[in-house]
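Input sequence (310 aa), recorded before submission:
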Amino acid sequence: IREAQTMARIDRNILIIGETGIGKEVFAQSIHNYGDRRKEPFVPVNCAAIPDNLLESILFGTTKGAFTGAVSTPGLFEEAGNGTLFLDELNSMPVSMQTKLLRVLQEKKTRRVGDTKMYSVNCRIISAINEDPKQLMEDGRLRADLFYRIAPLSLYLPPLRERKGDILKLAEYFITKYSNLMQKKIIDMDQQLKQTLQEYSWPGNIRQLDFVMENLVIRCHNNNTLTVDNMPEYLKQDFMKKNNSNTNNKIIIDETDSLNEAIDTLEKQLILKALNECDYNVTKTAEKLHIIRQSLRYRMKRLNIPNKKD
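Predicted structure, token format:
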């Protein structure tokens, strides 16, 4: 959050990196609201949700007669004006479209599809991707020159499983939200449910936690405390299966440790084991652990793991 606040004051393009469901758009909106452009429009667009053949006309606009049925319509760059254009899931944008976007960022001008008149682009661009940018560039799915244009400032959002201390606080927020919405008086969770939530890996991040807490509140009747029994059966089976698989690792931990200390011990030993197997090559280690490189760097720093062998 402190990094995002600092970036908000610097009028440069920003790239937000983080897994699906982590809240990248929330950060983008917050950066816009915290900066000097707060009174200008914030225009979000999910690049993955727009068909490739429509992406250009939606971003840049169209002129009447440009193609059959075309009418004069402003693009999102025009709608954003002096505000912020948020390009979510930029990694899903076709490379051919990335080339056109790069030209716009370089020249700060573009034109509607079918028009000859140029208009200025004055908005700030905040982009978001849910994969490792280095891997995207190596795979040819993200142009390196575009990356350098969209990412003079980069913000990495760690997944929820790396922020165990946030899980229960977020859960309490969602309890309040849905209790008020459904006119219930739920104020707490029992210890078993708290432990279950903290031990789960949360592949869907905060969006998944939101979904789970809503289901728990819906199924809680005549009680002010949520329990594991309030989970739908299919969710309960998934949670128990994932949590049981996490306990099968043959790593020794101190029984006097707290839950968070034990999880950190397990995580540190797994990372050290993978680093040794990959001769401390961070990129290969990240691939072996099935996480992005920035995530591994973040974990190593948090767990005080050195960057190379002693």
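Checked by second reader. The mean pLDDT is 89.
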